[in-house]
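Lecture 7 notes: from sequence to structure.

We start with a single chain of 263 residues. Read the sequence below before looking at the structure.
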Amino acid sequence: MHLLYLDDAGSATNQQEEYFVLGGISIFEAQAYFFVQEMDKLASTINPRNPHDVEFHASEIYSRKEQPWKGMGQQEARGVIKAVLNILKQSYETARVFACAVHKKSFPGRDPVELAFEDLCSRFDLYLDRLRGQGDRQRGILILDESTHETTLQRLTREFRTLGTRWGVVDNLAETPLFVDSKVSRAIQIADHIAYAVFRRYNAGDTNYFDIIAPKFDSFEGIIHGLSHKQKLDTTCMCLACNSRRAREHEGQIPIKLKEPDE
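Now the structure, written as tokens:
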């Protein structure tokens, strides 16, 4: 089974933030233990007596307002975020990152959570289609932090599997999403850091964290499929996602199911 762990960053309703981001990591089920081990090792440097009590939540680490981050200096705390992301960077070659950044004002009247979730379901389904074509017939399942819009996303997944998304029916998901407590899931904590890294890139122009994970976004034949920048603000945007999209358009390689809808 291929597991896509997802978490969000930014608020769908906060008008002070331009972006909402949903992002995370796809791994094969047997690979999850690697992240548990490596994250526990990192946690033991922060709380040697009880490393399992350390929850890595990127925005809390960055703000340093709560323990155990409260006593840290700015650079040390930001180093912890980078250390989490470097665990991902140095992990399995087959671990793939997916994220969707939604510029909220570009889509008035639309729920950015639904937009991002639909986009990532289609991208993950396309990834699984590609693996199936290579002989890997495993299906996928989505796993999210239990605080992440549980009722809405379960409903949407059921609809995507029967009625389809704007890009087509999602065929490769084995079940509606599972929701878990982020405190007990190191992989969800990794997903939290991915979403935060993408959020900082688009909402604050800070690429310090994004650049660490950029090579891990799902790609095929040089085209980035795992990152989506949904916006109508700048038709010449030079970010990784927009540049890759223009490359697909130029080469005529955009799969039908990932053509942008008329929002």
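The first strand starts at residue 2 and ends at 9. Keep this in mind for problem set 3.
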